Amino acid sequence: MMGVYGMLAVGLALFCLRYMIPEKLWSDNAAKISFWSLNLGLTWMVFATLFPLGVIQLYHSVNVSYYDARSLKFITDPNNSILEWLRLPGDALFIIFGTLPVLYLCVIGVFRMKKQTLREQPDGVLFTEIHEAQKSNK
Predict the structure, then answer these.
(1) How many domains does the chain have?
(2) pLDDT by residue (tens digit) across 2-22?
(3) CA–CA gap between residue 138 and residue 136 (Å, rounded)
(4) Exposed, middle or buried, 32 (CB in 10 Å: 0-12/13-18/19+)?
(5) CB 24 within 8 A of CB 114
(6) pTM to 2 decimal places
(7) Contact at 8 Å (CB) between 53 and 83?
């Protein structure tokens, strides 16, 4: 389920957390580790499992049938199972070193958020309200 929108969500979360967390508590290392682990984990998953299984399934659908390539018999084939297990290092890298640092930064962001300071009102007028006189039909 992690794809383009998931990576955008993590990027937006890190961007927002950077300004929510006090500078002394912010960890650039956690953000860097998370960034590289998420990207390398997804890359591993794609090239170790998803791409090879997709090519095998395409080959099977062209040579045998599309219905057979989508069947449970094909998906649970022991040869495919080996390729699925090759995905495990990428999953572990993604989960342990990719998501846990982001969760750590989120916890810091929630519990150690910067205190908001009151801003002074500017001397000049920022906007002018225009009130039209209501016309009565008398």
Answers:
(1) 1
(2) 778 989 999 999 999 998 888
(3) 6
(4) exposed
(5) no
(6) 0.71
(7) yes
Count of other CB atoms within 10 angstroms of residue 51: 12
- Note whether residue 118 is domain-resident: no
Which structure tokens are listed for 100? 């846990």
| Whole-angstrom distance, CA of residue 109 vs CA of residue 26 | 9
Contact 48, 39 (CB under 8 A): no
Q: What is the pLDDT of residues 36-90, one digit of tens each?
A: 999 999 999 999 998 999 999 999 999 988 888 888 888 888 888 888 899 999 9
Question: Which element (helix H / strand E) includes 84?
Answer: helix 78-85
54 part of a folded domain: yes
In three-state secondary structure terms, 71 is: coil
pLDDT digits (tens, 9 = 90+) for 92-109: 999 999 999 999 999 998
In a domain, 119, yes or no: no
Residue with tokens 């995905």: 87
Q: Is residue 15 included in any domain, yes or no?
A: no
Neighbours of 109 (CB within 10 A): 21
Structural domain harbouring 90: 37-113
Count of alpha carbons within 13 Å of 135, Cβ hemisphere only? 1
